[in-house]
Amino acid sequence: MTNLEHLGIAVQDLKAATALYTSLLGIAPYKQEHVASETVDTVFFRVGGSKIELLAGTAPESAITKYLEKKGEGIHHVAFEVNDIRAEMARLRAEGFVLLNEEPKRGADNKLVCFVHPKSAAGVLVELCQEIINA
């Protein structure tokens, strides 16, 4: 793992949370994106070498919607940048970690992503992400 890529924060109202974080951080978000495969809308802020990702579910079956129902707003996951997501997935499996994905999938902000189950990571949902290089 090469870098803390971002912190994901689950929010009920993306517009209100975007205004709040714009005021809190003193900067505007650099990107908004809908990720249809995850039924989620995202907003990203750059903070130093890392990012803050606000996430709001767009359907009842969204993992974010379900998370908010159970736990309320707050930190949802921590994401680490990796150079080779498949190699890192294999390494973590060999170390005994439980992954929520068999293969990396396309995520927000031009990334391939995979999640480590919180039960195998001291209660924290960990995201691995690798920049997609377009040829």
From TrEMBL:
Name the record gives this protein: Methylmalonyl-CoA epimerase
Domain VOC stretches: 3-131
Domain of life: Bacteria
Alphabetized UniProt keyword annotations: Metal-binding
GO biological process: L-methylmalonyl-CoA metabolic process
Record-linked Pfam families: Glyoxalase_4
Family: Belongs to the methylmalonyl-CoA epimerase family.
An MF annotation (GO) of this entry: methylmalonyl-CoA epimerase activity
PANTHER family: METHYLMALONYL-COA EPIMERASE, METHYLMALONYL-COA EPIMERASE, MITOCHONDRIAL
